[in-house]
C-alpha cells in the first residue's frame, strides 16, 4: 500500500494547513524531508502566502526538483510596497518617540509588527511587540500585547516566552479573560518542553467551543491523545478524556486518536502501535510535536509493556511478541528489568518471564526491624526530654510553672515562701532528731553509771 494512501490523516493535516494558510506550519513542512513536500510546493506556486515563503518555494523547486522557474513579479512588487510602508511607519515612530506620546508609540509598534508579519519576518514582528511593553498604560493593553507575543512565540517555538507571557496575563487576574485562550498556548509550551502530564491537565479543562487561530482542533486532539498515552493510566484516560463531553466533538477532526485511546484501554497493543505507525506523519509534520514524537512513542511503548505484565505472573516470550507484534521487544523488556521498572526474571532456556516472588519471612523481619528502630529512636528522644525537664531547661515548662504560681497580689512570691517554709520545717525535724539522739545517749550513760 502506498505511503500517502496509508496516511490519510496526514493528508488531512496538509489540507488543513492549506485551508487555514498557516504560514509558520507551511514553512516548517518545507524545512523537513517528507513525502508531501513536492505537492505542497506545487500548491504554493499558485497560492502565494508572503514574500519570504514565496521566494523559498521558487528556490526549492529549482534547487531540489530542477524546475528552472523565474521569480514571479508579484514578489518584487509586494516587497517594494512593504518596504515603503515600513519606512513611513518607522519615520512616524521616531517622531512619536521624540514627543513621548505613549499611545501613538504603542500603535506605531503594532503597525510595524503587522508589516513584518506580511513580509514573513516573524522575528522582527516579535521584537516590535516586545518594544511595546515599555509603553503600556492599562491592564487591557498589557493583555492585548502579551496575547500577540504568545501568538508569535508559538510560531517561533519559543516556549519559555509563552510561559512568561501567560504568567504576566494571569497576574492581572481580570475576570473577563477567556481561560481557553491561555490553556491552549500553555499546553503547546508544555509539549515543547516535554511536560506531557501538564499538557493533559490543560487540554482536559477546555470547553467544548475552545479554539485558537494557530492551533486547530485536530492538533489539540493529536497533542492530547499522545500525551495521555505517555502519562495517564487506563482509568484516567477513560474518566478524563473518553467520558469528557467537552472533548467528544474534537475527536471528529482526527478520528484515529480516539481509536488509539480505546486500543490502550483495551490492552490491544498491536493495533495501537500499528495505528501510530500508519499516522506518524500527522505527528511529524507538526512543528511542536516533531522533536517530541520519538520520545513520546518510546514512553508509550515502555508503559504498555509494564502495564501488560501487571496482569500475569508468568508469560512466554512468544505470547509477548504476538501481543505487541514486535520481534525486538525482548531487548526493551530486559532493559526495563535491569532498570527495576519491571520486577521479573527471564528464563533464557525456556524463554519465559516469571514475576519475582517476594520472601514473606524476610519482608516481615524487615518490617519488625524497622518498627524496632523507630521505637528505639522515639524512646531515646523521650529520655532526652525527661533529662532536659529535670534540669529545668525546657522553656515551656518553666513558663508554665511561673504562671501557675501567680494568683493575686504577691502571687509570684508564694512558691518561694512555701519552699522556705518546707526547708525550715525540714531543718526543725533534723534538729529534733539530733536532740533526741543526744538525749538518748546521755540517758544511756546515766544508766551505766547507776549500774556500776
TrEMBL record:
Q: Any idea where this protein resides?
A: Cytoplasm; Nucleus
Cellular component (GO) terms are: COP9 signalosome; cytoplasm
Residues in 26S proteasome regulatory subunit Rpn7 N-terminal domain copies: 75-240
Q: Which UniProt keywords apply?
A: Cytoplasm, Nucleus, Signalosome
State the residue spans of region: Disordered: 395-452
Question: Pfam families from the entry?
Answer: RPN7
Residue ranges annotated as compositionally biased, kind Acidic residues, are 427-438
Compositional bias (Basic and acidic residues): 411-426
Tell me yes or no: is Cytoplasm among this UniProt entry's keywords: yes
Primary location recorded for the protein, binned into one broad class: cytoplasm
**Any transmembrane segments, and where?**
none
Q: Does the keyword rRNA processing apply?
A: no
What the entry lists under InterPro entries is as follows: Rpn7/CSN1, Rpn7_N
Name of the featured protein? 26S proteasome regulatory subunit Rpn7 N-terminal domain-containing protein
Q: Which organism is it from?
A: Wallemia hederae
Amino acid at each position: 500500500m502506498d505511503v500517502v494512501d496509508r496516511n490519510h490523516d496526514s493528508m488531512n493535516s496538509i489540507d488543513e494547513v492549506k485551508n487555514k494558510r498557516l504560514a509558520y506550519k507551511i514553512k516548517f513542512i518545507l524545512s523537513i524531508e517528507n513525502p508531501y513536500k513536492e505537492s505542497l510546493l506545487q500548491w504554493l506556486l499558485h497560492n502565494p502566502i508572503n514574500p519570504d515563503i514565496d521566494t523559498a518555494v521558487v528556490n526549492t523547486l529549482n534547487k531540489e526538483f530542477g524546475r528552472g522557474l523565474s521569480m514571479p513579479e508579484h514578489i518584487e512588487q509586494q516587497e517594494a510596497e512593504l518596504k515603503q510602508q515600513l519606512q513611513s511607519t518607522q519615520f512616524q515612530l521616531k517622531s512619536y518617540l521624540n514627543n513621548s506620546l505613549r499611545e501613538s508609540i504603542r500603535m506605531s509598534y503594532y503597525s510595524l509588527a503587522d508589516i513584518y508579519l506580511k513580509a514573513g519576518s516573524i522575528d522582527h514582528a516579535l521584537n516590535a511587540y516586545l518594544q511595546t511593553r515599555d509603553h503600556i498604560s492599562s491592564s487591557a493593553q498589557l493583555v492585548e500585547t502579551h496575547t500577540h507575543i504568545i501568538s508569535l512565540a508559538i510560531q517561533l517555538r519559543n516556549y519559555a516566552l509563552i510561559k512568561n507571557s501567560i504568567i504576566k496575563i494571569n497576574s492581572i487576574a481580570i475576570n473577563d479573560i477567556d481561560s481557553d485562550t491561555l490553556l491552549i498556548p500553555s499546553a503547546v509550551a508544555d509539549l515543547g518542553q516535554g511536560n506531557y502530564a501538564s499538557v493533559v491537565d490543560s487540554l482536559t479543562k477546555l470547553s467544548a467551543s475552545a479554539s485558537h487561530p494557530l492551533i486547530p482542533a485536530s492538533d489539540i486532539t493529536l497533542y492530547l491523545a499522545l500525551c495521555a498515552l505517555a502519562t495517564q493510566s487506563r482509568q484516567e484516560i477513560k474518566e478524563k478524556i473518553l467520558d469528557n463531553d467537552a472533548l467528544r466533538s474534537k475527536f471528529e477532526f482526527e478520528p484515529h486518536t480516539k481509536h488509539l485511546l480505546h486500543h490502550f484501554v483495551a490492552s490491544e497493543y498491536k493495533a495501537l502501535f500499528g495505528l501510530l505507525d500508519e499516522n506518524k506523519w500527522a505527528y511529524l509534520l507538526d512543528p511542536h510535536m516533531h522533536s517530541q514524537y520519538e520520545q513520546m512513542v518510546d514512553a508509550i511503548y515502555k508503559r504498555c509493556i509494564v502495564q501488560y505484565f501487571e496482569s500475569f505472573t508468568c508469560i512466554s516470550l512468544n505470547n509477548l511478541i504476538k501481543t505487541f507484534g514486535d520481534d525486538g521487544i525482548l531487548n526493551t523488556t530486559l532493559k526495563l528489568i535491569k532498570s527495576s521498572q519491571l520486577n521479573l526474571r527471564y528464563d533464557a532456556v525456556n524463554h519465559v518471564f516469571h514475576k519475582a516472588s517476594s520472601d514473606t519471612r524476610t519482608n516481615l523481619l524487615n518490617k519488625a526491624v524497622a518498627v524496632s528502630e523507630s521505637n528505639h529512636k522515639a524512646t531515646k528522644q523521650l529520655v532526652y526530654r525527661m533529662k532536659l525537664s529535670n534540669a529545668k531547661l525546657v522553656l515551656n515548662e518553666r513558663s508554665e510553672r511561673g504562671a501557675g504560681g501567680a494568683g493575686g497580689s504577691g502571687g509570684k512570691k508564694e512558691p518561694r515562701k512555701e519552699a522556705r517554709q518546707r526547708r525550715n520545717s525540714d531543718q526543725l525535724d533534723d534538729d529534733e532528731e539530733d536532740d533526741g539522739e543526744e538525749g538518748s545517749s546521755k540517758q544511756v550513760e546515766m544508766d551505766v553509771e547507776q549500774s556500776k
